[in-house]
Amino acid sequence: MTKKDTINLNRKSIFMLKLLGMKYKQIDLSRLKTYSIKDRSSKVSAEKSAIVHKKDNSFKEFIEGLPDFLAAHDLKAVVQSIIKAYKNKRPVILGMGAHPIKVGLSPLIIDLMQRGVLTSIATNGACIIHDFEISYIGQTSEDVAKELCTGTFGMAKETGQMLNNAIKNGIKNNDGIGRSIGEFIESSDFAFKDRSIFRTAYILNIPATVHVAIGADIIHMHPQADGASIGEGSLKDFRLFTSVVADLEGGVYINLGSAVILPEVFLKALTIARNLGNKVEEFTTVNMDFIQHYRPRENVLKRPTMIKGQCFALTGHHEIMFPLLCAMIIEELG
Length: 334
Hints:
alpha/beta, Deoxyhypusine Synthase, six-stranded parallel sheet, 14 helices, 6 strands
Protein backbone atom coordinates (compact mmCIF):
# COMPACT_ATOMS: atom_id res chain seq x y z
CA MET A 1 0.00 0.00 0.00
CA THR A 2 1.39 3.38 -1.07
CA LYS A 3 1.49 6.52 1.02
CA LYS A 4 -1.23 8.01 -1.23
CA ASP A 5 -3.50 4.96 -0.63
CA THR A 6 -3.05 5.36 3.12
CA ILE A 7 -4.05 9.05 2.96
CA ASN A 8 -7.18 8.22 0.92
CA LEU A 9 -8.13 5.44 3.42
CA ASN A 10 -7.81 7.86 6.33
CA ARG A 11 -10.02 10.40 4.53
CA LYS A 12 -12.72 7.79 3.99
CA SER A 13 -12.61 6.80 7.69
CA ILE A 14 -12.95 10.41 8.77
CA PHE A 15 -15.90 10.89 6.39
CA MET A 16 -17.71 7.83 7.76
CA LEU A 17 -17.14 8.98 11.37
CA LYS A 18 -18.66 12.35 10.48
CA LEU A 19 -21.74 10.65 9.05
CA LEU A 20 -22.17 8.58 12.22
CA GLY A 21 -21.72 11.64 14.37
CA MET A 22 -24.54 13.39 12.52
CA LYS A 23 -26.82 10.42 13.33
CA TYR A 24 -26.68 10.93 17.09
CA LYS A 25 -28.03 13.89 19.04
CA GLN A 26 -28.50 14.63 22.73
CA ILE A 27 -31.28 12.40 24.03
CA ASP A 28 -34.64 13.95 24.93
CA LEU A 29 -35.39 13.37 28.65
CA SER A 30 -38.79 15.09 28.67
CA ARG A 31 -40.65 11.74 28.53
CA LEU A 32 -38.57 10.10 31.27
CA LYS A 33 -40.70 8.16 33.79
CA THR A 34 -40.12 9.00 37.47
CA TYR A 35 -41.78 8.15 40.79
CA SER A 36 -41.89 9.58 44.28
CA ILE A 37 -38.96 8.76 46.56
CA LYS A 38 -41.61 8.02 49.17
CA ASP A 39 -42.65 4.98 47.13
CA ARG A 40 -39.08 3.70 46.74
CA SER A 41 -37.55 0.92 48.80
CA SER A 42 -34.30 2.24 50.37
CA LYS A 43 -31.50 0.32 52.06
CA VAL A 44 -30.46 3.15 54.38
CA SER A 45 -32.71 4.87 56.90
CA ALA A 46 -32.06 7.49 59.55
CA GLU A 47 -33.45 5.25 62.29
CA LYS A 48 -30.64 2.75 61.68
CA SER A 49 -27.91 5.35 61.98
CA ALA A 50 -25.37 5.44 64.80
CA ILE A 51 -26.20 7.13 68.11
CA VAL A 52 -23.57 9.49 69.49
CA HIS A 53 -21.80 7.94 72.48
CA LYS A 54 -21.91 9.93 75.70
CA LYS A 55 -19.21 9.87 78.34
CA ASP A 56 -21.19 8.04 81.03
CA ASN A 57 -23.04 5.64 78.73
CA SER A 58 -22.88 1.91 79.54
CA PHE A 59 -21.35 -0.65 77.18
CA LYS A 60 -24.86 -1.92 76.44
CA GLU A 61 -25.81 1.59 75.33
CA PHE A 62 -22.69 1.67 73.16
CA ILE A 63 -23.79 -1.56 71.46
CA GLU A 64 -27.31 -0.25 70.94
CA GLY A 65 -25.79 2.89 69.43
CA LEU A 66 -23.97 1.04 66.66
CA PRO A 67 -25.35 1.64 63.17
CA ASP A 68 -27.45 -1.23 61.86
CA PHE A 69 -25.60 -1.58 58.56
CA LEU A 70 -23.12 -3.99 56.98
CA ALA A 71 -20.50 -5.32 59.43
CA ALA A 72 -22.18 -3.76 62.49
CA HIS A 73 -25.42 -5.49 61.52
CA ASP A 74 -23.57 -8.77 60.94
CA LEU A 75 -21.79 -8.56 64.29
CA LYS A 76 -25.12 -8.18 66.07
CA ALA A 77 -26.53 -11.09 64.05
CA VAL A 78 -23.60 -13.32 65.03
CA VAL A 79 -24.17 -12.50 68.70
CA GLN A 80 -27.85 -13.39 68.39
CA SER A 81 -27.01 -16.67 66.64
CA ILE A 82 -24.62 -17.61 69.46
CA ILE A 83 -27.14 -16.66 72.14
CA LYS A 84 -29.87 -18.66 70.38
CA ALA A 85 -27.60 -21.72 70.17
CA TYR A 86 -26.66 -21.32 73.83
CA LYS A 87 -30.29 -21.10 74.97
CA ASN A 88 -31.30 -24.05 72.78
CA LYS A 89 -28.33 -26.10 74.09
CA ARG A 90 -26.82 -26.37 70.64
CA PRO A 91 -23.06 -26.44 69.92
CA VAL A 92 -20.95 -23.33 69.58
CA ILE A 93 -17.60 -24.48 68.21
CA LEU A 94 -14.48 -22.30 68.08
CA GLY A 95 -11.96 -23.31 65.43
CA MET A 96 -8.78 -21.27 65.71
CA GLY A 97 -5.19 -20.71 64.70
CA ALA A 98 -2.49 -19.77 67.21
CA HIS A 99 -2.60 -16.01 66.69
CA PRO A 100 -5.55 -15.43 69.06
CA ILE A 101 -3.49 -16.98 71.89
CA LYS A 102 -0.47 -14.85 70.93
CA VAL A 103 -2.50 -11.64 71.18
CA GLY A 104 -3.79 -12.46 74.65
CA LEU A 105 -7.30 -13.80 73.99
CA SER A 106 -7.01 -16.99 76.07
CA PRO A 107 -8.77 -15.48 79.15
CA LEU A 108 -11.77 -14.53 77.00
CA ILE A 109 -11.97 -17.95 75.38
CA ILE A 110 -11.68 -19.64 78.78
CA ASP A 111 -14.42 -17.41 80.19
CA LEU A 112 -16.85 -18.37 77.40
CA MET A 113 -16.00 -22.02 77.95
CA GLN A 114 -16.71 -21.71 81.67
CA ARG A 115 -20.00 -19.92 80.95
CA GLY A 116 -21.07 -22.84 78.78
CA VAL A 117 -21.18 -20.72 75.62
CA LEU A 118 -18.28 -22.38 73.82
CA THR A 119 -18.92 -26.11 73.77
CA SER A 120 -15.92 -27.28 71.74
CA ILE A 121 -12.48 -26.05 70.68
CA ALA A 122 -10.58 -27.09 67.54
CA THR A 123 -7.06 -25.83 66.84
CA ASN A 124 -4.01 -26.24 64.68
CA GLY A 125 -0.78 -27.70 66.06
CA ALA A 126 0.77 -24.36 66.98
CA CYS A 127 -1.93 -23.67 69.57
CA ILE A 128 -0.68 -26.30 72.02
CA ILE A 129 2.78 -24.72 71.85
CA HIS A 130 1.68 -21.22 72.80
CA ASP A 131 -0.92 -22.51 75.27
CA PHE A 132 1.76 -24.61 77.01
CA GLU A 133 4.35 -21.82 77.12
CA ILE A 134 1.86 -19.34 78.54
CA SER A 135 0.83 -21.81 81.26
CA TYR A 136 4.44 -22.81 81.97
CA ILE A 137 6.22 -19.44 82.22
CA GLY A 138 3.59 -16.83 81.33
CA GLN A 139 5.35 -15.96 78.06
CA THR A 140 5.39 -17.17 74.45
CA SER A 141 6.21 -16.22 70.83
CA GLU A 142 9.92 -16.00 70.07
CA ASP A 143 11.60 -13.62 67.61
CA VAL A 144 11.56 -15.99 64.63
CA ALA A 145 13.70 -13.89 62.29
CA LYS A 146 16.42 -13.36 64.88
CA GLU A 147 16.50 -16.97 66.08
CA LEU A 148 16.38 -18.33 62.52
CA CYS A 149 19.65 -16.54 61.72
CA THR A 150 21.45 -18.40 64.51
CA GLY A 151 19.73 -21.76 64.04
CA THR A 152 18.05 -21.59 67.44
CA PHE A 153 14.48 -21.01 66.26
CA GLY A 154 12.11 -23.46 67.94
CA MET A 155 14.81 -25.00 70.10
CA ALA A 156 13.31 -24.28 73.53
CA LYS A 157 14.11 -27.52 75.39
CA GLU A 158 11.08 -27.65 77.68
CA THR A 159 8.58 -27.01 74.88
CA GLY A 160 9.92 -29.80 72.72
CA GLN A 161 10.40 -32.34 75.48
CA MET A 162 7.28 -31.79 77.56
CA LEU A 163 4.75 -31.52 74.74
CA ASN A 164 6.08 -34.51 72.81
CA ASN A 165 6.16 -36.62 75.96
CA ALA A 166 2.63 -35.52 76.85
CA ILE A 167 1.38 -36.57 73.42
CA LYS A 168 3.06 -39.98 73.70
CA ASN A 169 1.68 -40.54 77.21
CA GLY A 170 -1.78 -39.53 76.08
CA ILE A 171 -1.73 -42.06 73.25
CA LYS A 172 -1.05 -44.78 75.82
CA ASN A 173 -4.33 -43.74 77.47
CA ASN A 174 -6.10 -43.77 74.09
CA ASP A 175 -6.47 -39.96 74.15
CA GLY A 176 -6.09 -37.49 71.31
CA ILE A 177 -3.61 -34.62 71.44
CA GLY A 178 -5.99 -32.00 72.85
CA ARG A 179 -7.02 -34.04 75.89
CA SER A 180 -3.45 -35.27 76.41
CA ILE A 181 -2.11 -31.71 76.66
CA GLY A 182 -5.01 -30.59 78.87
CA GLU A 183 -4.47 -33.43 81.32
CA PHE A 184 -0.71 -32.83 81.36
CA ILE A 185 -1.08 -29.12 82.18
CA GLU A 186 -3.76 -29.81 84.82
CA SER A 187 -1.48 -32.30 86.59
CA SER A 188 1.46 -29.87 86.56
CA ASP A 189 2.46 -27.19 89.05
CA PHE A 190 2.78 -24.52 86.36
CA ALA A 191 2.33 -21.01 87.76
CA PHE A 192 0.04 -19.85 84.96
CA LYS A 193 -1.92 -23.02 84.20
CA ASP A 194 -5.20 -21.21 84.79
CA ARG A 195 -4.47 -19.46 81.46
CA SER A 196 -4.52 -22.75 79.53
CA ILE A 197 -7.39 -23.34 77.11
CA PHE A 198 -6.62 -27.06 76.91
CA ARG A 199 -6.50 -27.46 80.69
CA THR A 200 -9.88 -25.72 80.95
CA ALA A 201 -11.36 -28.03 78.30
CA TYR A 202 -10.00 -31.04 80.19
CA ILE A 203 -11.52 -29.86 83.49
CA LEU A 204 -14.88 -29.08 81.85
CA ASN A 205 -14.72 -32.33 79.85
CA ILE A 206 -15.48 -30.61 76.55
CA PRO A 207 -13.82 -31.60 73.25
CA ALA A 208 -10.55 -29.82 72.50
CA THR A 209 -9.05 -31.18 69.31
CA VAL A 210 -5.70 -30.52 67.64
CA HIS A 211 -5.23 -30.90 63.89
CA VAL A 212 -1.57 -31.21 63.00
CA ALA A 213 0.37 -30.70 59.78
CA ILE A 214 3.52 -32.68 60.55
CA GLY A 215 6.60 -30.56 60.04
CA ALA A 216 4.74 -27.29 60.56
CA ASP A 217 5.29 -27.00 64.34
CA ILE A 218 8.55 -26.46 66.26
CA ILE A 219 8.05 -29.52 68.46
CA HIS A 220 8.40 -31.71 65.36
CA MET A 221 12.05 -30.62 65.14
CA HIS A 222 12.92 -32.20 68.50
CA PRO A 223 14.25 -35.75 68.93
CA GLN A 224 11.35 -36.60 71.28
CA ALA A 225 8.85 -36.17 68.43
CA ASP A 226 7.20 -39.45 67.54
CA GLY A 227 5.42 -39.45 64.21
CA ALA A 228 3.23 -42.40 65.06
CA SER A 229 1.97 -40.75 68.25
CA ILE A 230 1.45 -37.35 66.62
CA GLY A 231 -0.38 -38.89 63.69
CA GLU A 232 -2.52 -41.18 65.80
CA GLY A 233 -3.35 -38.39 68.27
CA SER A 234 -4.34 -35.99 65.52
CA LEU A 235 -6.44 -38.65 63.76
CA LYS A 236 -8.27 -39.41 67.01
CA ASP A 237 -8.94 -35.70 67.37
CA PHE A 238 -10.21 -35.45 63.80
CA ARG A 239 -12.71 -38.23 64.46
CA LEU A 240 -13.78 -36.58 67.71
CA PHE A 241 -14.17 -33.25 65.94
CA THR A 242 -16.25 -34.93 63.24
CA SER A 243 -18.56 -36.25 65.95
CA VAL A 244 -18.97 -32.69 67.23
CA VAL A 245 -19.69 -31.34 63.74
CA ALA A 246 -22.27 -34.09 63.20
CA ASP A 247 -24.27 -32.45 66.02
CA LEU A 248 -23.96 -28.90 64.65
CA GLU A 249 -27.59 -28.51 63.48
CA GLY A 250 -28.91 -25.29 65.02
CA GLY A 251 -25.45 -24.36 66.26
CA VAL A 252 -22.60 -22.01 65.35
CA TYR A 253 -19.12 -22.65 63.97
CA ILE A 254 -16.58 -19.83 64.34
CA ASN A 255 -13.29 -19.84 62.44
CA LEU A 256 -10.92 -17.48 64.24
CA GLY A 257 -7.69 -16.80 62.40
CA SER A 258 -7.07 -20.11 60.62
CA ALA A 259 -6.52 -19.58 56.91
CA VAL A 260 -5.87 -23.18 55.82
CA ILE A 261 -5.84 -26.03 58.36
CA LEU A 262 -9.16 -25.59 60.18
CA PRO A 263 -11.23 -24.64 57.09
CA GLU A 264 -10.00 -27.81 55.38
CA VAL A 265 -10.60 -29.98 58.46
CA PHE A 266 -14.08 -28.51 58.97
CA LEU A 267 -15.10 -29.27 55.38
CA LYS A 268 -13.96 -32.90 55.63
CA ALA A 269 -15.66 -33.39 58.99
CA LEU A 270 -18.90 -31.95 57.63
CA THR A 271 -18.73 -34.28 54.62
CA ILE A 272 -18.36 -37.34 56.84
CA ALA A 273 -21.17 -36.17 59.12
CA ARG A 274 -23.58 -35.81 56.20
CA ASN A 275 -22.38 -39.00 54.53
CA LEU A 276 -23.27 -40.94 57.69
CA GLY A 277 -26.82 -39.59 57.58
CA ASN A 278 -26.62 -36.79 60.14
CA LYS A 279 -28.78 -33.75 59.43
CA VAL A 280 -26.33 -30.85 59.48
CA GLU A 281 -27.95 -28.18 57.33
CA GLU A 282 -29.30 -25.21 59.27
CA PHE A 283 -26.48 -23.63 61.26
CA THR A 284 -24.40 -20.46 61.32
CA THR A 285 -20.78 -20.13 60.25
CA VAL A 286 -18.54 -17.16 61.03
CA ASN A 287 -15.07 -16.26 59.80
CA MET A 288 -13.15 -13.73 61.88
CA ASP A 289 -9.83 -12.52 60.50
CA PHE A 290 -8.05 -9.35 59.42
CA ILE A 291 -7.96 -10.71 55.84
CA GLN A 292 -10.73 -12.80 54.29
CA HIS A 293 -8.81 -15.69 52.72
CA TYR A 294 -10.02 -18.09 50.04
CA ARG A 295 -10.42 -21.28 52.11
CA PRO A 296 -12.33 -19.74 55.03
CA ARG A 297 -14.59 -17.93 52.56
CA GLU A 298 -15.36 -21.09 50.60
CA ASN A 299 -14.95 -23.93 53.12
CA VAL A 300 -16.39 -22.21 56.20
CA LEU A 301 -18.82 -19.64 54.87
CA LYS A 302 -20.21 -20.47 51.41
CA ARG A 303 -20.10 -24.21 50.75
CA PRO A 304 -21.31 -25.54 54.13
CA THR A 305 -24.35 -23.23 54.20
CA MET A 306 -25.53 -23.73 50.61
CA ILE A 307 -28.46 -25.93 51.69
CA LYS A 308 -29.70 -23.71 54.52
CA GLY A 309 -28.16 -21.70 57.31
CA GLN A 310 -26.34 -18.41 57.25
CA CYS A 311 -22.76 -17.17 57.20
CA PHE A 312 -20.95 -14.01 58.24
CA ALA A 313 -17.49 -12.61 57.51
CA LEU A 314 -16.24 -10.28 60.24
CA THR A 315 -13.05 -8.53 59.16
CA GLY A 316 -10.72 -6.96 61.69
CA HIS A 317 -7.88 -7.55 64.12
CA HIS A 318 -8.43 -10.44 66.51
CA GLU A 319 -7.37 -8.41 69.53
CA ILE A 320 -10.17 -5.91 68.85
CA MET A 321 -12.96 -7.87 67.19
CA PHE A 322 -13.02 -10.95 69.42
CA PRO A 323 -13.11 -9.01 72.73
CA LEU A 324 -15.95 -6.95 71.27
CA LEU A 325 -17.83 -10.12 70.32
CA CYS A 326 -17.27 -11.65 73.78
CA ALA A 327 -18.41 -8.50 75.57
CA MET A 328 -21.58 -8.32 73.46
CA ILE A 329 -22.33 -11.97 74.25
CA ILE A 330 -21.90 -11.35 77.98
CA GLU A 331 -24.22 -8.34 77.82
CA GLU A 332 -26.87 -10.48 76.15
CA LEU A 333 -26.47 -13.23 78.74
CA GLY A 334 -27.24 -10.68 81.46
